[in-house]
Write a structure and sequence with these properties.
eight-stranded mixed sheet; about 25% helix; Alkaline Phosphatase, subunit A; alpha/beta; six-stranded mixed sheet
Length: about 500
């Protein structure tokens, strides 16, 4: 909060919270950064704080966003799959910001499956996993499988608009064939256009959650982004290695062809390079339109009164280890960018190396808005860390993945003979190694970050220490709604966090 103008008038700072979908962190800082052009995100990094060791605490899209918006580990919110309901009484970023007088505006999607309790089975909200998290006012619907306003825009422009996923089929036979729509009519362009049109009319003190579906598959980009990068210039993928049963099934389940609509693709280096080029093009398209938003913030005078938070829900394997997508234990599927520009501080270009987690974003925004963080939240506000007052920070990060399905058994369940409640894993990530523990009796993995390979057999003592640390982590982070609350003779008492 800050006081502006005369007469003691108080105007809240604006909040702009941007999430990209399936955006790898190493495109901004790391192995892929030299190969992709992202000038506007990098310029923001130069005027903000960048968290270099930031990870999603769960995958895929719905669970990861549930954790971001509730500040909870998946083991606590339990919306562990796309389509698993998020309990309606979970405090979210949006429900809490309303307590500070904000009206959280949604431009895009949150992929929040609704709590069926108290709803009629015929309720349309119970027929899609792409519903809206509690507390948000949906200004523009831009869901992957729906996006009716964008489809209406395309039809009004004269396009023949097929249903999903055919709307994302490349034109022609090439892997990088252009999308059926022009660049000025793409989903990314349309979302940005509508956001800028609407937000420009809002009075100061607005709160916007803007979510880009890109560079999420299907991998198809409008010209010129489809050919902005060439396959020949792409960095090679991390070689396939390891015969862990989970990885073997994962490679079978998520082949290269699953990224493109209507094309039969052979797995291999050539296909990987071609798909990486399209993925980079989609990332550059998002960067271009994000640059338009930054330009508007500066030209409108809103720049110095807008808190900007930019991240991704999760990463993407891009063929590393022979795997595509995010349903895996490997770090590239969880490592995401986090950029925070707070206009009340001057920390441009600072990089924080301490491990941070996606659940830290919600309490960070709430504390910046002057709100007390709910007892349900597992994450830690990053403000003190940004100010150099973080004290002893965490030594590791923690992630989870549920790869089962209680209704339709997944390929992992079928081939590994796992019941739904044993089809899950947890990852404890230190600076040098990651321990991967499976619930279904599969052998644990100890991934050496430098080698990218399992070294559990050579390091039994380290496996034991990290297993104990993972157990302590889970014991220290149970669902905390009433963890600090006691019913006493004097009534309800709640301790400060």
């Amino acid at each position: 909060m800050r006081a502006l103008g005369g007469g003691g008038v108080t105007i809240r700072d604006n909040i702009l919270f941007v999430i990209m979908d399936q955006f790898r962190a190493d495109m901004l800082r790391g192995a892929l950064a030299a190969h992709v052009d992202l000038p506007h995100f990098r310029a923001l990094m130069g005027e903000a704080v960048y968290f270099a060791n930031h990870h999603s605490v769960c995958n895929p899209c719905g669970p990861s966003r549930a954790s971001i918006l509730t500040g909870q580990y998946a083991m606590n919110h339990r919306a562990v799959r796309n389509g698993t309901p998020l309990p309606a009484d979970k405090p979210t970023l949006a429900t809490e910001l309303r307590r500070a007088g904000y009206k959280p505006l949604l431009y895009g999607y949150t992929d929040t499956a609704q709590d069926p309790r108290g709803r009629d089975p015929a309720d349309p909200a119970l027929h899609t996993y792409e519903e809206v998290a509690a507390g948000f006012s949906e200004v523009l619907e831009m869901r992957l499988e729906e996006s009716w306003p964008w489809r209406a825009h395309l039809k009004a422009k004269g396009y023949d608009v097929p249903p999903y996923p055919e709307i994302y089929r490349p034109q022609g036979s090439a892997v990088n064939g252009p999308a059926l729509y022009a660049a000025e009519d793409s989903d990314t362009a349309f979302l940005t256009d509508r956001f800028l049109e609407d937000i420009a009319a809002r009075p100061p003190g607005w709160c916007a959650h803007l979510t880009y579906i890109r560079p999420h598959p299907p991998l198809v980009a409008p010209a010129p982004y489809n050919s902005m990068y060439t396959a020949a210039d792409m960095p090679g993928a991390h070689p396939q290695g390891g015969a862990h049963p989970f990885d073997v099934v994962t490679r079978e389940k998520a082949r290269a062809a699953s990224n493109v609509v209507g094309q039969a693709l052979e797995d291999g280096a050539a296909t990987t390079a071609a798909l990486r080029a399209v993925y980079f093009g989609l990332a550059s398209e998002v960067d271009h339109h994000f640059g338009r938003i930054i330009a508007w913030l500066k030209s409108s005078g809103a720049w110095e009164r807008t808190l900007i938070v930019v991240t991704a829900d999760h990463g993407e394997m891009l063929g590393d280890h022979g795997i595509w997508g995010k349903m895996t234990h490997h770090g590239a599927a969880y490592h995401t960018p986090l950029i925070i520009r707070d206009p009340s501080t001057r920390q441009g270009g600072r990089v924080i190396e301490e491990p941070t987690e996606s659940i830290d974003i919600m309490p960070t925004i709430l504390e910046r808005a002057g709100l007390r963080v709910p007892g349900t939240v597992d994450g830690r506000a990053l403000g003190p860390l940004m100010a150099g007052q973080g004290g002893v920070w965490r030594s590791h990060s923690y992630s989870e993945l549920d790869f089962g399905n209680p209704i339709t058994p997944t390929l992992w369940q079928q081939l590994l003979n796992l019941p739904e409640n044993e089809a899950n894993l947890a990852v404890l990530r230190s600076g040098t190694h990651s321990l991967v523990q499976f619930a279904g009796g599969l052998p644990a993995l100890l991934i050496d970050h430098d080698m990218g390979a399992d070294c559990a057999a050579e390091n039994p003592a380290l496996v034991a220490r990290m297993t104990q640390e993972m157990l302590r982590h889970r014991m220290q982070n149970p669902e905390g709604r009433f963890a600090r609350t006691m019913i006493t003779a004097q009534g309800v008492k709640t301790a400060a966090p």
